[in-house]
Automatic annotation (TrEMBL), chain A:
Its cofactor is thiamine diphosphate. InterPro entries: THDP-binding, Transketolase_N. Residues 24-209 form the Transketolase N-terminal domain. Pfam families: Transketolase_N. SUPFAM superfamilies: Thiamin diphosphate-binding fold (THDP-binding). This is Transketolase. Keywords: Thiamine pyrophosphate. The keyword Lipid metabolism does not apply. GO terms for molecular function: magnesium ion binding. Belongs to the transketolase family. The lineage of its organism: Bacteria, Bacillati, Actinomycetota, Actinomycetes, Micromonosporales.
UniProtKB/TrEMBL annotation, chain B:
PANTHER family: PYRUVATE DEHYDROGENASE E1 COMPONENT, TRANSKETOLASE-LIKE PYRIMIDINE-BINDING DOMAIN-CONTAINING PROTEIN. GO terms for molecular function: magnesium ion binding. This is Transketolase. CDD domains: TPP_PYR_DXS_TK_like. SMART domains: Transket_pyr. The lineage of its organism: Bacteria, Bacillati, Actinomycetota, Actinomycetes, Micromonosporales. It comes from the Bacteria. It comes from Krasilnikovia cinnamomea. InterPro entries: PDH/Transketolase (IPR051157), THDP-binding (IPR029061), Transketo_C/PFOR_II (IPR009014), Transketolase-like_Pyr-bd (IPR005475). Residues 1-163 form the Transketolase-like pyrimidine-binding domain.
Length: 228, 292
């Protein structure tokens, strides 16, 4: 990638405090800039409003490698920074996959791939049914996670339901075993789509906020290939 | 039972703005009036049962009370991991309502059978399971589920008893045998076949439409030296719980239900019941052989 993030990301320093999940480290770093932009510029949720029914929702579907997520939650005050020092410990609230019942501000427990998008569709439908039309649901997936067939049930139905309150973010670190010939955005038939540099904060923020809301939106954030 | 489910759930949708219904093409026509009145809360996701469960989890996360409905093999068997993670792991609830349980789809074959649904849910924590034995037992069970946020499974069947029984989480004695008589516990629609099979056997017959959580106190109160459990799903599904409940009581148990082997034939529900030994003659043969 050639574009360097222009704004600061205090979570970048915090993520180095997390140790113990080296297997998923590339996964964690691939999401770091998008997560920071989401929490810094986009999401209408704060530590004080995590229980408000009309808050925006963020669902981390790609629960593998949540170190970046935890770092961003710490940098934005959802969790104490001290929690970062005991990733996966017996008495830690932070596991190698997040658990919503243990961590303030975490909307879903995830780790098994292919669950977040269906939950996000249901969340967006629930918000719409209750008249929270300004509330938005964001869900983050990985390009390899799209191999799970359940995602494609959700993609098709979200468009059929015209779920304008839903945005999926796909972190594309080119780790899907057989790739996605023709591009990832093309798999989200009927959705509006943006493909952005996954390190460019302004481009990420623009992509996350510029859709017209008449149908679901997907943002494909391209980052360095896994392992490089 | 299916019609009763449709009527009750339609009424709940009208009465309670928390109620939502998620379908996967099954029974959509029956819910057409409800869909017209509540398009944001009656959701047909198409033939996408994994999504159906995931959507239910998402709805519950926003505070709604989702009812989720399809044929048992698709509702439970196919979407098992979504039930486990999108409901249980998220610590949210839903009301799963199945039709086509066990071999109700008798003439279409094993692809549409689900004898193992309750056993699958038994691997998970926190599920209440209702198996009504008569259509008139269904409304009270569905309405009770609307008042809580728990995980509830309502297993509807085309088989039913001639008359309804009171809806209760407790075991009910239907026919009392002499003191010390063996106990035969019938679950849901197994009551009438059990009553017919044991008419002259001198046993106590008890009934439940809520096998989960199992009324272990009631079971201990009724238990004698010989206990037979007759359930309309996989034979032995309740054996672990019964054994644990009665571990300190010397006794013998017989568990009758749908046999594990595929029957590999078509025919009526009665034909399937006969093949699994769950018709009155088959039950009588098994019970008398056990009692000696």
């Amino acid at each position: 990638m050639t574009v360097i993030a222009e704004r600061g990301n205090p979570a970048r320093q915090l993520v180095t405090r997390l140790a113990g999940d080296e297997k998923h480290a590339p996964s964690a770093y691939s999401t770091l800039e998008v997560l920071w932009v989401l929490y810094d510029r986009v999401l209408r949720v704060t530590p004080a409003t995590v229980d408000e029914p009309d808050r925006d929702r963020f669902l981390l579907s790609k629960g593998h490698g949540p170190a970046a997520y935890y770092a961003v939650l710490a940098a934005t005050g959802f969790i104490p920074e001290s929690w970062l020092d005991d990733l996966g410990g017996r008495n830690s609230r932070l596991g190698l996959h997040p658990d919503r019942t243990l961590i303030p501000g975490v909307e879903i427990g995830s780790g098994s791939l292919g669950h977040g998008l269906g939950l996000a569709v249901g969340t967006a439908l629930g918000l719409r049914a209750q008249g929270f039309l300004d509330s938005h649901t964001y869900v983050l997936l990985g390009d390899a996670e799209l191999d799970e067939g359940a995602n494609h049930e959700a993609i098709a139905y979200a468009y059929a339901a015209r779920l304008g309150g839903l945005t999926a973010i796909v972190i594309d670190n080119q780790s899907a075993t057989h790739g996605w010939p023709g591009g990832i955005a093309g798999r989200f038939v009927g959705w509006s789509a943006s493909v952005v540099d996954g390190y460019d904060h302004d481009a990420i923020a623009h992509a996350l906020t510029s859709h017209d809301g008449s149908r679901p939106h997907v943002v494909v954030a391209t980052v360095a290939p896994k392992g490089r | 039972m299916r019609e009763t489910f449709v009527a009750t759930t339609t009424a709940l949708l009208d009465e309670d703005p928390r109620t939502a219904l998620v379908l996967a093409d099954i029974s959509v026509d029956a819910f057409a009036p409800a869909l017209r009145r509540h398009p944001d809360r009656v959701l047909n996701v198409g033939i996408r049962e994994q999504l159906m469960a995931g959507v239910a989890g998402g709805l519950a996360l926003t505070g709604l009370r989702p009812y989720v409905h399809s044929y048992a093999p698709f509702l439970v068997d196919r979407a098992y991991e979504q039930i486990k993670l999108d409901l249980g792991h998220q610590d949210v609830g839903a009301v799963l309502v199945s039709i086509g349980a066990s071999y109700d789809a008798s003439d279409v074959g094993y692809t549409h059978h689900s004898p193992g649904d309750v056993a699958l849910l038994d691997t998970l924590e926190g599920w209440t399971v209702h198996v009504p034995g008569h259509r008139d037992e269904v409304p009270a069970l569905l309405r009770a589920a609307a008042r809580v946020d728990d995980r509830v499974y309502v297993r509807l069947s085309t088989q039913e008893n001639r008359a309804p029984r009171p809806v209760s989480p407790r075991l009910q004695v239907v026919r009392r045998g002499p003191a010390g008589a063996p106990l035969v516990l019938a679950v849901g629609p197994m009551l009438d076949p059990v009553l017919a099979a044991t008419a002259d056997l001198g046993v106590t017959v008890a009934y439940t439409s809520t096998p989960r959580p199992l009324d272990t106190a009631g079971l201990r109160a009724l238990a004698t030296a010989e206990i037979v459990v007759v359930e309309p799903y996989l034979a032995g599904t309740t054996s672990r719980m019964a054994a644990a409940a009665l571990a300190d009581l010397p006794h013998r148990e017989l568990h009758l239900g749908v046999r594990r082997a595929e029957t590999r034939h078509y025919g009526s529900v009665a034909d399937q019941a006969r093949s699994h030994g769950l018709d009155p003659a088959g039950l009588r043969a098994s019970i008398t052989a056990f009692l000696g």
